[in-house]
Amino acid sequence: MAVDPATRRGSPALSIIVPAHNEATRGFSVLPSLEAAAAELNALVIVVCNGCTDDTLAVARRARGIEVAEIPEAGKAAALNVGDELAGAVFPRLYLDADVRISVDALAEVAAALVEPDGAIAGPTTSYMLDGAPWLVRRYYDALAEVPFLARLSSDLMIGRGLYAVNAAGRARFERFPALTADDGFIDRLFDPDEKRVVSSAVAGVPVPDTLQGFFRAKTRAAAGTKELVSWLEVHRPDRLAVADTLPDPRLSLARRVRHHLNRGGLLSSRRPSAIVDLVVYLLVEAAARTRVTLAAQRGPWR
Prior knowledge:
By secondary structure, the protein is an alpha/beta fold. It contains eleven helices and seven strands.
């Protein structure tokens, strides 16, 4: 592992950890915001290149004010752990995906939401980047905003935002990131609903797959990651499987999840055709993803 030190003004005000795997091929869109955070927020920015086979390492090292580490194996959890070791005691700490589009002001607002001494986690509002996405993909992501129970889940969870952040007390709740696909699902389960902060004025642009093949692979990977996380929680943290009555137990089948929401006030707030279509698309995609995970169980985890 090699680290390029950056010159900074006194003690850093916050730390930002960015796992990066072959991001140069995809444009590494977050780099300008990282440079701005290092300069304007006095942030300790650490990019951890993991298992890269393209020019990601070279591109990251050309960025101003950023520390860069390299590990040979590809794996987000390993990269997060290396970033944590290098960041030391610098909090608040932001964990940021390399393909997210976010302003330096939004990064500052998320960090500012973690000033209380008790454990807390914060994240931005999500804006999915749907330009060029197929019709079915757009319908699926529209459901997350238009279908009431999905919008409620989106407001309650720190999953899929491309960024989550913790203060020192929050980070003290675990030692290291376990080797799980769903790192955001893991850390989300460690916090109660009243400890989570969604910063409405901070918007993160999250890219979505632009092909149906890529979309279904991503959804299958997410379903496999959820199944893997549930298995880990059952062994290591069974107390965090059911965090609040408002959220369904992740072990529920899709049909039982639907019944759960019907019992708590319904799936739809209107009968608009677009909302009904969006809900049907969401349910079909989720069912297909779970089925693919079941059928592919003998092939090993989706990574």
